[in-house]
Specification:
Elements lengths: L2 H26 L6 H39 L2 H8 L5 H10 L1 H4 L6 H10 L4 H10 L5 H11 L1 H25 L1 H11 L10 H18 L10 H7 L1 H19 L4 H22 L16 H19 L5 H32 L10 H6 L6 H13 L7 H10 L4 H13 L2 H11 L1 H12 L1
Helix pairs in contact: 2-6, 2-11, 2-15, 2-16, 4-7, 4-9, 6-7, 7-9, 8-9, 8-19, 9-20, 9-22, 11-13, 14-15, 16-21, 18-20, 19-20, 21-22
Length: 446
């Protein structure tokens, strides 16, 4: 062994030793028994459980399939034409900044989609605009904000989210112009999109996006009307898109009919078992999840997703199906652990709505009572480190404003919270790198 190898081994052993000492000291000084610390641990686990129930199953699983499909079935040339560094700026930023209104994505669901278009060749500016505007401007969030906090706040939220996302995207495009041009030149040398008719890709994405949107359709505050009607029939609509996807997989992906029928049968059996055997005393909804979700819908939904995954991953498969599953799994491995770590840390520090973590809520309320620059800046910082489940930011803001929070900081929190959270930042760093994450976060806060 030469001297260089010996030095490297010693350095590696020293790092392991320091990590060991650090972990030992952490456990040695844990303030167990201190009520606030114990409560913060509980809040971290509680928030992680809520996240797993309300977002992983309904939001992230469909989103990972969509992200994998983007990576495989969308032409790199098409992405670069409409969203690439040299695309027409008005078209690129318009598409990127307003697409969230129809996708109805939350802050965690947008991440796989962002990673998909970024790796497929989207420019840094449009990709960042989509990342930051999507969660804040979905149509349900805007309608609920207007209904609960007033039309002025709803309009300000929509305009602010679109405007700021475009400004941040443009700034990022200018700052990293050189690296973006180099990246664009590298991606022009190949296009790995399969040769398939456009209508097949359109129908496949229509089915996938339809499942994502309607499975997560929020409850309307009105007892009747269009939104209430869609909500009442959300699972029938979702089932319709599921059948559409089954037809697509059978006809164009070579999925055996007996596999499709098996998934359908398993889903029907799980619905019946859940409805009459497994959870007969749970009323009309699952505890800890959107109160309007029928308990007979969630478990069959997960059964269908698992059946699809197994059927597409086992046995003889066309190359495009193999690539789709591989990309979906790669996105899942990269994003899921970081999201869960971020949720745990956010829950530990700030807790859940109406429940405190390590940071007392009085500290937050006392610092956002006026409309000063410091209050707005503090609200955006707190919002960026909190985790907001879909549409929960509205009742949270309602409570804070009732406690004396000014409208300016409330809007800052409303814009920063859904768009930029600690889990998001961890994932963005893994996709774009620390430098781009830092720049985009600073621009958003400023």
């Amino acid at each position: 062994m030469n001297r260089t190898d010996t030095t490297a081994d010693i350095f590696l052993d020293s790092k392991k030793l320091l990590w060991g000492i650090g972990i030992f000291l952490l456990f040695f000084i844990l303030p167990l028994g201190w009520q606030r610390f114990d409560q913060s641990i509980f809040e971290a686990l509680y928030l992680a459980r809520e996240y797993a129930r309300a977002h992983v199953l309904l939001c992230l699983l469909p989103a990972f399939f969509i992200a994998g499909a983007i990576a495989v079935f969308i032409s790199r040339d098409a992405v670069m034409t409409y969203l690439g560094p040299k695309a027409h700026k008005v078209l690129a930023y318009t598409v990127a900044s307003v697409s969230g209104t129809i996708l109805a994505v939350c802050s965690c669901t947008v991440l796989p989609l962002f990673a998909g278009i970024w790796r497929k060749g989207a420019g840094l500016g449009p990709a960042v605009a989509f990342l930051y505007s999507g969660p804040a401007i979905n149509v349900l969030a805007i309608v609920m904000t207007s209904a609960v906090l007033g039309p002025s706040m709803g309009i300000a939220r929509a305009v602010g989210a679109i405007s700021f996302s475009v400004i941040i995207g443009l700034a990022m495009q200018v700052i990293f112009r050189k690296s973006e041009l180099e990246r664009s030149a590298e991606m022009k040398h190949f296009d790995d999109a399969p040769q398939r008719p456009l209508y097949q890709t359109v129908l496949q994405f229509l089915a996938l996006v339809g499942i994502l949107v309607f499975a997560n359709w929020g409850k309307s505050s009105e007892p009747e009307g269009l939104w209430h009607g869609i909500y009442a029939g959300k699972w029938l609509i979702t089932t319709g898109f599921g059948i559409m996807l089954a037809v697509v997989l059978t006809k164009w992906f070579g999925l055996k009919r007996w596999k499709t029928l098996s998934i359908a049968a398993a889903t029907a059996v799980m619905w019946a078992l859940t409805r009459w055997v497994i959870l007969p005393n749970w009323g009309d909804s699952l505890p800890g999840i959107d109160e309007g979700i029928p308990y007979g819908a969630l478990i069959p939904f997960v059964t269908a997703i698992m059946g699809l995954t197994i059927s597409m991953s086992v046995g003889n498969r066309p190359k495009e199906a193999l690539d789709w599953m591989d990309h979906t799994w790669n996105f899942t491995k990269q994003i899921m652990p970081l999201l869960l770590i971020g949720v745990l840390v956010a829950g530990f520090l700030l807790g859940r709505p109406a429940h405190e973590g390590m940071i007392p809520s009085e500290w937050v309320s006392s610092l956002v009572g006026d409309n000063s620059i410091s209050s707005n800046f503090f609200a955006s910082i707190i919002g960026a480190f909190m985790y907001f489940a879909t549409l929960t930011e509205v009742p949270i803001l309602q409570g804070l404003m009732g406690s004396g929070m000014n409208k300016g900081p409330a809007l800052a929190l409303l814009l920063a919270g859904p768009a930029l959270s600690l889990p998001n930042m961890l994932v963005i760093r893994s996709v774009m790198g620390t430098k781009k994450l830092s720049s985009s976060s600073v621009w958003w806060w400023s």
